[in-house]
């Protein structure tokens, strides 16, 4: 299933050839700037992602970088298939309604292990983040399958009035992503407020010092 939303997280095209050439020779980790909102709120426009080269150890729920039509994208892995033609990956942006086109090892670039926003850095290759990523991937995959099921059902019974079950499922599909995002993205809110927390802590320390000086 191809993505219809053009606002996907992508890397600057001018960096692609240079990055691939360096990775092909050294296999080192590199920070790469991101644009777009397809992985919001985890990855935002202006963030940088630290990418490690290669596909070893990739699991469902990991955020990976791949190449499609001359552009690099950073999206979450929903499924991994092994076939006669090798490994095939199915990915999707957390903030997009549809999956990306399937791609193989030749298009695979690397795995995102951390996100840099300003002076802050958040690793996402920990056990906790892998579990969270897996939950997001499974819920996203279930949502896509439910959407296809309802769409096929509507096409099959298009001449009839939609029944209560179909209406219930459609309404559920509207609220399901909101519920998942609110539950799964709690750590993102903490990361977003980390700067405020640090500021408050400094302010508290400064206030305490002033009070002690005034005694």
From TrEMBL:
Keyword Transmembrane on entry: yes
EC code(s) of this entry: 3.4.21.89
Record Pfam families: Peptidase_S24 (PF00717)
GO aspect biological process, one term: signal peptide processing
Keyword Protease: yes
InterPro entries, per database record: LexA/Signal_pep-like_sf (IPR036286), Peptidase_S24_S26A/B/C (IPR015927), Peptidase_S26B (IPR001733)
Main location class: membrane
GO-annotated cellular components: membrane
Domain of life from the UniProt record: Bacteria
Residue stretches making up the Peptidase S24/S26A/S26B/S26C domain: 28-78
Keywords: Hydrolase, Membrane, Protease, Transmembrane, Transmembrane helix
Transmembrane segments: 127-150
Annotated protein name in UniProt: Signal peptidase I
